[in-house]
Amino acid sequence: MIGATGGPKKITVIGAGIAGLVAAYELERLGHEVEVIEASRDIGGRIRTHRFPGRDGSIGPFAELGAMRIPAGHRLTMHYIAELGLQNQVREFRTLFSDDAAYLPTASGYLRVRDAHETLVKEFAAGLPNRQYRPNTLLFGAWLDASIRAIAPRQFYNGVHNEIDVQLLALVDHIDLTPYRCGAEGNRIDLHAFFADHPQVRSFCPPRLERFLDDVLDETSSTIVRLRNGMDALPRRLASRIRGKITTAQEVVAIDVRDDAVHLRVRQGIRTFSKTCDYVVCTVPFTVLRKMRLTGFDDDKLDIVHKTEYWPATKVAFHCREAFWEKDGITGGASFTGGHVRQTYYPPADGDPAHGAVLLASYSIGPDADELSRLSDAERNAVIARELSEMHPELRRPGMILGMAGRAWGSHRWSSGAATIRWGQEAALREAERREATRPQRGLFFAGEHCSSKPAWIEGAIESAIDAAHEIEWYEPRASHVFATARLSRSEKLSRADKSA
Questions:
Q1: When you count CB atoms within 10 A of the terminal residue's CB, does the N or C end of the chain come out lower?
Q2: SS3 (DSSP) at 208
Q3: For the residues 127-142, what does the mean pLDDT come to?
């Protein structure tokens, strides 16, 4: 198939993360010639599967130091998993509070999820000006507050926990919450199911809480999946389907947009060279892009490049001698640990138990992640081990921790942040910023989760890449607009096809 404007185009994709690889894959499907250049020495971007060594020198268990889960409702991601032949690797991902034996901190100390409801309700009700709500309403508010506290950075939580206001609770108080009680003892509320059945309740959430609630519901959903052999199977399988050359260790240091071409300055080792491209798809985070020398960009584009905010994230995994948490009754999911640690996940021990098991000891975002990233690896690991051993004293046993690995995405050279998070913004502003982030500069197009309606998720990276590929397909160099808006993008077509299936 040739391009819509009369022939195949030659396109350079900057970045070999999911957005870059999907863009290359889709452009080749449309009949274009594509090459991919990547600054780091590996592909995958913010998908980072770390494999610990086994005891006999073989490959042992792995930890996801980057993207680790996929909401099953993310139709584009699930479509690519099927298209790439990875559906047999799809497994359930168990998340926060999904195991009744997991822990969370309260004023009374660490409590099991199954035992925490009375304390959570008491602490939540104490902060309400009017406590005349039905017990189920207070249980709803207590678990919503606990979920926000577990997911949000401490500073963000301090600003929103009072926004579970009387108007919201008064509305919920008129709804029968009995069908949404869950857990072995029926002492929790299935927030995801409740909001799915009662979308009108969302309109009563304050703007600062409304967008954040999307992530709360995604992260606490019972329909999240993972890839059994590691999330890096997705970028590697994509790369194997791309015919064009994928070159690593080539860092773009300058982009000059002109009427007839896009000129790149590329550093490879100690050598820097120029590269002239007909078309370019830039998929790197704007935190990285704004460190480059940019010319030929209009002022509005430069403004969005420099003001788009990324939240950091820091993950630290422990390679343990055994899955000691199973003896403590925890079969999976995650605890909310609090402190610097924030969240602790118990990945399934799918491999040979002789090689040990992985504990995702700490997952933090925002200012909490920044605090940890400012420490050295040794200091960070020591802080996490010390805090986490208060909840899991088994970590103090000699020889229990076999190894550690981590990634501070906020200070990582090729990301300078984990994701674009637009919490606290109203919907119209979020959409305006997304459109401006996506808007091309003549032959330079943009993709990445920061250009999507699903920032911070693989789904967003894929959505933006598909749309960028089709913008290039319909691009006419002398046109004042990029493509006919009456046409559906492939991402929209795929979404509609999945819904009708």
A1: C
A2: helix
A3: 88
Of the residues 411, 429, 464, the one at which a domain ends: 411
User: For residue 165, what pLDDT band results from cuts at 50, 70 and 90?
Assistant: low
Q: Report the domain count for the chain.
A: 3
Give yes or no for a contact between 297 and 305, defined as CB atoms under 8 angstroms apart.
yes
Distance CA 355, CA 334 (A): 22
- Pseudo-torsion of CA 213, 216, 218, 223, nearest 10°? -130
- Sequence-distant (6+) residues with CB within 8 A of 392 are 324, 325, 328, 344
Structural domain contains residue 344: yes
Structure tokens at 130: 């009017």
Q: Is 23 annotated as a binding residue?
A: no
Tokens of 218: 């995604």
Find out whether 39 is annotated in a ligand binding site.
yes
Tokens 């606290």 appear where? 424
**CATH assignment of the domain containing 53:** 3.90.660.10
Q: Kindly report the three-state secondary structure assignment for every residue of 239-299.
A: HHCCCCCEECCCEEEEEEECCCCEEEEEEECCEEEEEEECEEEECCCHHHHCCCEEECCCH
Distance of alpha carbon 208 from alpha carbon 251, whole angstroms: 37
| Residues 66 and 33 occupy one common structural domain | no
400 is in an annotated binding site: no
- DSSP secondary structure letters along 362-424: EEEEHHHHHHHHTS-HHHHHHHHHHHHHHH-GGGGSTT-EEEEEEEEGGG-TTTSSSEE--TT
Asked, for residue 416, whether it belongs to a domain, the answer is: no
Q: What is the pLDDT of residues 262-316, one digit of tens each?
A: 999 999 999 999 999 999 999 999 999 999 999 999 999 999 999 998 999 999 9
Lowest mean pLDDT among 18-32, 211-225, 332-346: 211-225
Tell whether 252 is in a known binding site.
yes
How far from the centroid of its chain's Cα atoms is residue 294's Cα? Answer: 28
Is-contact 204 167, C-beta < 8 A?
yes
Nearest C-alpha neighbor of 191 from the set 142, 154, 243: 142
- Per-residue pLDDT tens over the stretch 22-33: 999 999 999 999
Task: Tell me: is residue 41 an annotated ligand-binding position.
Answer: no
366 a known binding residue?
Answer: no
Residues 6+ apart with CB under 8 A from 319: 52, 60, 61, 63, 356, 357, 358, 401, 402, 403, 404, 405
Same structural domain for residues 339 and 371? yes
Asked whether residue 34 is marked as a ligand-binding residue, the answer is no
Q: Phi and psi (nearest 5°) for 78?
A: -65, -35
Instruction: Check the annotation: does 66 bind a ligand.
Output: yes
Residue with the two structure tokens 């491209």: 277
pTM: 0.90
Rounded to whole angstroms, how far apart are CA atoms 443 and 452? 20
Q: Which domain holds residue 439?
A: 10-44+234-308+421-500
Interaxial angle between packed helices 377-391 and 366-373, expressed in degrees from 0 to 180 and rounded to the nearest 10: 120
